[in-house]
């Protein structure tokens, strides 16, 4: 039941990957074979690194058709009491349902819920991530 998905595809994995320590990200990009699942999958290491930097700035990840065509995922990181990213909270659905108009609302809800979970795990925000 289920399958393992690579961290570099989709909102869930990107939300986690973006908040790993820089050295872990560099090692991941160097060692991971970046396979294309769709025409929207990022397979260029430099583009992936730039995407992860943008995710860190925004505090969430959006992926449209990266792993599955016509599917959109929005993910926000969840942190533990040591400020380490341990998971992500993600919604996914058909791109026709997760429209541009709804993305702003969904992003706000996902980030708020992910922060509540993080705080319940002992996380204390030291930045303006949310």
DSSP helix fraction = 40-55%
Which architecture name does CATH use?
2-Layer Sandwich
Coarse morphology: globular
Helix/strand order: HHHEEEH
Total E-strand runs:
3
Q: CATH topology, anyone?
A: Beta-Lactamase
Number of helices: 4
Specify the CATH homologous superfamily.
GAF domain
- Structural class, by secondary structure, is alpha+beta
Using the CA coordinates, give the radius of gyration. 14 Å
- Percent strand equals 15-25%
Low-confidence stretches: none
Please explain how this structure is put together.
- A hairpin with a 6-residue loop joins strand 1 and strand 2.
- Strands 1-2-3 form a three-stranded antiparallel sheet, sandwiched between helices.
- It has a single domain, classed as Beta-Lactamase, CATH 3.30.450.40.
- The chain is of the alpha+beta class and 130 residues long.
Layout of helices and strands, plus pairs?
Blueprint: H1 10-17, H2 22-31, H3 45-58, E1 61-64, E2 71-79, E3 85-94, H4 100-120
Antiparallel strand pairs: 1-2, 2-3
What would a concise description of this structure say?
Helix content is about 40%, strand content about 20%. By secondary structure, it is of the alpha+beta class. The protein has a single domain, classed as GAF domain (Beta-Lactamase).
């Amino acid at each position: 039941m289920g399958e393992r998905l690579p961290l570099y595809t989709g909102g869930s994995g990107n939300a986690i990957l973006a908040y790993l320590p820089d050295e872990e990200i560099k090692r991941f990009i160097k060692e991971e074979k970046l396979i294309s699942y769709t025409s929207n999958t990022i397979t260029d290491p430099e583009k992936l690194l730039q995407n992860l930097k943008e995710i860190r700035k925004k505090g969430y990840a959006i992926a449209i058709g990266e792993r599955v065509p016509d599917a959109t995922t929005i993910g926000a990181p969840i942190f533990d009491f040591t400020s380490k990213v341990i998971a992500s909270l993600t919604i996914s659905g058909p791109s026709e349902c997760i429209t541009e108009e709804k993305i702003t609302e969904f992003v706000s809800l996902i980030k708020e819920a992910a922060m509540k979970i993080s705080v319940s795990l002992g996380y204390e925000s030291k930045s303006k991530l949310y």
